[in-house]
Amino acid sequence: MYAQLVETGAKRLKTLEEMSPEEREFQLKVDAETKIEAKNWMPEGYRKTLVRQISQHAHSEVVGMLPEGNWVTRAPSLKRKLQLMAKIQDEAGHGLYLYSAMETLGADRDEEIDKLHAGTVKYSSIFNYPTLSWADMGTVGWLVDGAAIVNQVVLQRTSYGPYSRAMIRICKEESFHQRQGYQILLDMMREGTEEQKEMVQDSINRFWWPSLMMFGPSDDQSPNSQQSMAWKIKRKSNDELRQMFIDQTVPQLEFLGCTAPDPDLKWNEERGHYDFGEIDWQEFYDVLKGNGPCNKERIETRKNAIDGGAWVREAAKVYAEKKQQKQQNAA
Ligand code: FAQ
């Protein structure tokens, strides 16, 4: 029933009556679950919010390759190495679909990537934590991809067509990622040595809370949620998704024979959900400010990758230009 945040001190959304005819038509279309496509009229705020969210999402997929890339040469078997490489390549693909979806909104890929390298835009906090053991490859797949799926399954119904269609393909691949991660942990817990089992528990201890932070600040602290929900860019709130993730993950945790580093985690019969402890939001905001354990290293690695690949792009461009010239000469 609402479209845009009214520019007043008190943050509230415009009512249908307060909207311009174009805004009203747009909002009614969104309310009727009609997808918005690239060439349709849209409020500038809707376009900007999508560019922000989709570019952040794309950057996350690309930076997200790094913690796992760290283990490709040390995977314990050929099978594991192949699975890990395939997963990392999938993440690169997700980045590409998402950058393409973002470009349909008129944003420029190179400019957005420059902003990432300048540290002026965000990517998911989770990728600023190090991957210290092979068990982390299991935990990243199980918890990090698991959290990503919970968030992304609902984004398949996001109101912007190109984003929603990209999410359908991405979700199919993410569910394979989650299972391969869980399988790594199951194997270590079932067939591993005591030391390997401890490695799994240590990994869960390190990744549990950062995975819960992936869903963003709690609803009352999330500046973008109200508007994004009204525009159906977001279909469920940060807290709703976090709770869904916890509810589906705890039984898997118990099946592994592991525990979470949260003494307050327990089933609440009345609510029909798990209760859980307070998230350390100070840590979350510190990571967002660039002070996580790996922020600087991640951006440095991405910059080096772009700089190191400059000659390939240059060569491809010269080749394409020469080929075009040849075709024109022959015509
Ligand atoms: N990290 O008002 P809200 C993956 C920022 S993909 C960093 O609640 P919003 C696959 C937020 O941008 C993981 N920043 O914001 C994979 C905003 O800042 P801004 C990425 C965060 O947008 C697996 C401010 O805080 N997934 O893992 C985070 O309505 C394994 C206030 O927050 C997506 O991007 C965070 N965790 O809701 C790859 C999904 N949370 O821009 C490799 C799409 C919040 O105003 C290996 N994105 N912020 O300055 C979304 O669904 C939303 O953008 C949220 C945040 C839910 C992340």
Mean pLDDT, to the nearest integer, reads: 95
Q: What fraction of residues sit in β-strands?
A: under 5%
Count of DSSP helices? 13
Helix content: 55-70%
Main beta-sheet annotation:
2 strands, antiparallel
- Along the chain, the helix and strand elements come as EEHHHHHHHHHHEEHHH
Helix- and strand-based class?
Answer: mainly alpha
- Note the overall shape: globular
Q: What is the total tally of β strands?
A: 4
Q: How is the largest sheet built, in terms of strand order?
A: 1-2
Indicate the radius of gyration in whole angstroms: 22 Å
Low-pLDDT runs of 5+ residues are: 6-10
Which ligands appear in the coordinates?
Phenylacetyl coenzyme A
Head-to-tail CA distance between termini? 58 Å
List the helices and strands and how they pair.
Blueprint: E1 2-5, E2 13-15, H1 21-31, H2 44-63, H3 65-69, H4 78-103, H5 109-118, H6 135-155, H7 161-191, H8 194-213, H9 225-230, H10 238-256, E3 266-268, E4 273-275, H11 281-291, H12 295-308, H13 310-330
Antiparallel strand pairs: 1-2, 3-4
Phenylacetyl coenzyme A binds at residues 52-53, 56-57, 60-61, 64, 91, 122, 124-125, 140, 144-145, 148, 151, 213-217, 222-225, 228, 234, 238, 288.
